[in-house]
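Subject: mismatched residue count in predicted assembly?

I count 532 residues in my input, but I want to confirm that the predicted structure covers every chain. Input:
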Amino acid sequence: MTGTSVETSGHAAHTASEMMSVAAARALRDGTSCFVGIGLPSTAANLARRGHAPNLTLIYESGALGARPDSLPLSIGDGILAETADAVVGVPEVFNYWLQPGRIDVGFLSAAQLDRFGNINTTVIGGDYANPGVRLPGAGGAPEIAASCREVFIVVKQSRRSFVDKVDFVTSVGHGSGAGDRARLGLPGAGPTMVITDLGVFRPDPGTAELVLEQVHPGVTVQQVREATGWELAVASEVGTTTAPTAGELTALRALTGGPDGKEG
Amino acid sequence: MAEIVTLAEAVTELVSDGDQVALEGFTHLIPVAAGHEIIRQGRRDLTLVRMTPDIVYDQLIGAGCARKLVFSWGGNPGVGSLHRFRDAVQNAWPAPLELEEHSHAGMANRYVAGASGLPFAVMRGYTGTDLPSVTTTIKPITCPFTGERLTAVPAINPDVTVIHAQRADRAGNVQMWGLVGVQKEAVLAAGRSIVTVEEVTDELSPVAGQVVLPSWAVTAVAEVAGGAHPSYAQGYSDRDNTYYQEWDAISRDRATFEKWLTEAVLT
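Triage response: the counts match. Full output below for your records.
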């Protein structure tokens, strides 16, 4: 689950999963509000709040607005979320009053399958809907989070199983079939603006809305990323390298997850 | 006015074969003991409704109580998939399970419409997803004032809604707090309701963030301390995260599940 440990000069050894969580956390700006999915997004959002973004407002679909958990919750409804929240509201209110009008800056989601336009599948894989190869949990809050947050970050472990040419089911819309599709559909938010994996960081091309590899994590080659992508990957003319996790980031992350092999989604 | 009864009496009187039943609770205050009583009493052909069917629905499905599931997220929160749910969908074991699948926003609005006595709710949602192509209860609607294209979802009005709350008084007024999910809407949308509570007390002292369901809005109240376990009741218990993690192994295998069912629920 944790991949190969990477040693970078001046930085502590870390796993690929830890690099992913740290890179995802860095994407969150202080003073913004973030609708947090469980698992990897929750790990990253809580790491950000302990580090560079102490005024990040965490919103959980269970009704906790402005939660400040001191340990990583296992579920989106752990007691620590309600106990530390600015406000606790009912579930219809979360979706109707807070999410739907576009009050929330960032929707932070994960995916079982993701395509080149950032469309997400968390419903079924293989077969057809009625007789699926694998039945997944389903939509939860994600379709409306993906539609209504001002922008969406997606954090997902990358492989040919998760980065697919065509998602088997569109549970949540990214950029649909390409540039302009969100506007045509009337989706208010900007959609996915960043995808963070255990290999690198992707952003949609402004012209085509197709995901472009912009950064690789330390020790990862562009070729490795291509091999873990189920389509002909677009690569930026200059690919940067993510700054390795600092000792401080790793300490904070491990305090949350219980160590390099701890829970993280 | 709500009657104060035992859980067994409430399920015998208020839950029948073929009913549409919502056991609601959004991670917190899940009516697990009531779910087990439904299994013990051998109810069949239920249409189970819930935003977040988690392990008690996995248990009801594996025990053969359900014919259909109306839901928006069926998983073991923070752990992974529900294996009995998956086995029913993929292999029709122990019986085929019809699905009516929504998003959380859609389900929440369906309960709001049900509680409001309206036939449907209007929302922004589902646009561009594949859900409308597999779920017939998602339809486009045009705003008569602005012409905007929106989405309509029909009201949910369960035959019976079951919830767990922290307290009730002896008159049957119910008080809950913490993450209160969609329970108020689910009770008000239903024809009948059962509320299990941690304790029945003489008085309900006010608590910050409380939701009170007046006695006359509830059919039956049953005192079941710990009735939400492995979920929790804020102020009374903590979420038993280890149990949720252990459920993954118990539920993965049919024989292990059936052994668990016999030992933990049926005896």
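The radius of gyration of chain B is 18 Å. Marking this ticket as 'not a bug'.
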